[in-house]
Amino acid sequence: MTSNIPSQVSSRKALVVGINKYEKGKIFPALKAPDYNAKHMKSILKQKCSFLVSDFSKPDRKQLKDEIIKLFLPNGNPPKMALFYFSGYILVKNSGLTEVFLTTSDSNPAQDDLGISLHWLREVLKCSKIEQQVVILDCCHSEGNNKLLNLDNFILDNYLNMSRFLIFSFQKSKQEFQQDGGRCSSLTKSMLIALDNQYKYGNDNAELVKYLKSNEMFLRKLGDFKRIYFGKIDNLAISNNKAESKSGEPDNTVSSHQCPYKGLSYFDSNPEDTSNFYGRDRTINQLLEKINKNNFLAVIGTAGVGKSSVIRAGLVYRLKEGLQISGSDNWYIPPVIQPGEKPLNSLAQAFVDTSLSAEEQKLQFREFIKLLDEKKENNGEKITDALEAMIDQVIKNYNKERVILVIDQFEEVFSLRKHQAPGERLGDNSEQYLFIRCLLEKLEAWSSKFSLVLAIRADFIGKCTERRYFGLAANIQQNLVAITPMDPDTLREVIVKPTEKLGVRVEEKLIDRLINDMKSVSGNLALLQYMLTKLWYHQDHQTLTLINYNNLGSLKGILNQHGNKVYQELKNQDQGAIAKTILINLVALGDGTTGYTRKKLLLENLIEICRRKNQLDNQQNISLEQIKSTIEDLQKSDLIILEEDIQENGEKKQVVTLAHEVLTQHWKKLREWVQEYRYIDIRKNQIISYAQEWDQEDIAQKASRLPSSQQLEESKVFMMQYGELLTSSDSELITRYIEAGQEKINYRNYIGNIIVITFFPFMIVLLLIISLLIYKFYKHCYCIL
Predict the structure, then answer these.
(1) What pTM was estimated for this model as a whole?
(2) I need a surface site. Which of 37, 180, 624, 657 has the fewest CB within 10 A?
(3) CA-CA distances (angstroms) from residue 28 to 88, 89, 105, 106, 689?
(4) Is domain 559-661 given the CATH code 1.10.760.10 in the classification?
(5) CATH number of 280-482
(6) Where are the beta strands (DSSP E) in 192-278?
């Protein structure tokens, strides 16, 4: 929401209409408020907003149509901003398709002459080339109307990325519309005060909308109400007060400020992060528009392009703020979740009220987990009942209108499955499949109370199409917003804007170099943010310089240089092997058909893995302090993150994850380690798969699933060399599998020995008997001869 003052009056044009009296007075009784509304709107738009205003008090249908076309589809050069204000009756026609009409002075329902259709007005706005379009409709129903309208049907899709500010208020009756003795109606009164305040104090449009919001709950009780604000619109009122606010002045005490860049972290949905989040306004408006009209949204992009920041600092923050979509601040938006290895746990965690005490949160989480577990029977046929119960509970308890569930890194549903074979699809009984079913099976039926937002890495889109997955692929196709690399202008914003307000300068030649180097890393914003963070801490005289950029290494090489430096320092302290074990185990390899992803490990499990690895390598025992020290060093070096996660029992425990997936792409050593590990992981999954098949068979069939001598030997070698890669439960399973296989082979050898021991003497006797018979036969033959 910007505040650019237009260079000339003709850059702003307005059409103001207020109709009090109608030719068909019996159908449309005379009103008092519209004319009063229009008179005051015309005055303030001319005097305090610098609009060239045309006004009509009693236009017929043809006149009003012509004037609307003249305003939004003018011949010659169009104005920069066009505003249409209408106050009077509306008429609703239901003939299969609900239509709403602005009634004109000659409207006659008996002859099907109803006025100006909102569908027609929407098409005019669509065809208009005017950059900034403002429409304010302050009306009442011509007849008492208790059925709420879906006003989103009359709001134009923002295909051309135009800036639009639309306010529709359709009150149920004439009496409610004219509560103030026939003077200004409620919406217009609020609008006049907001514009006057903007003129007096130089507020931006965000402040104007905040004032309007304070009266919106009342307006929604009186009838249909919708406010939409997409794009950038110049301040409506043009203030003569040019004094800058304190917050707008550069602050030269930079050392006292936190770095405005985020390194390898994402921008979150808090005021501090959003104030430094630039370059994605157009994309955020697309997201807002989609979620306003649909209850499913897919956000697609490559690793490092900024999906996590866009959904948090963009979509979630603006929905909670409620300035761009009226009423969105009354939607329940749980903290953004990631599926992880146990996505149903993550789903339950999303609905836990974080304002409760720790013990109450634990109990609530267990309650939700129990509900989900109960509905998992029969391939999860009733799993959606559990989610619906959680949605209804939240709406009732917090008096919210709907629930918006945002899931980041949805690809984890496919990448974090245990023991997956290459190309293997989700099984019907897998937790991941039940998770998708829970979210999507009744999505359409829940359109009035639940919306789902998924952020998915682009290379996993194919996984979403492997099966129907309850309409997952179809929903993605219909409601997709792609996060693409930024153009040079938006990259400049990202680089310069956060430091500008802090009095820190960025050298022009550094800006040009960064923009140019972004081409070589495919628009990877994570690398750019990381480099800018490093430059912030290496600034010279409050300036980010090209010299320091060259010293730090290029965008493409900075993570490789940093990772190698940290690893070498740890290696020098005899902690290199521990660091390697930690980092490898935080990478999810998937099934080989997609790129690598991150995974979370419990801190206690990671420590156990490091200990087991050390024991198998026959090295000197490492202490717990050494492992913890290595983890702490990796965390301080921004290579890993420690955070808390709720476990199945409701307890919060520390988990460890890789700082960003971009490390697997741009740190060569880590990539080499992971590539070596991929073959080992395939072998591990094969052995676990064999063991699980054996374990799941009944006693009679178990023998048929036991390993061959070769498989047994391979399993033993794997356990000796790579046993630390297994969880304790998998290690126990494989140990039982090997022991059972060894028993089978031992038994086979035992039987073989018995056979040899008993059969060998028998054979000797038999051979002696045969030899004796042969001897006697020859002797007999000799006697005959």
Answers:
(1) 0.85
(2) 624
(3) 10, 8, 9, 10, 76
(4) no
(5) 3.40.50
(6) 223-230
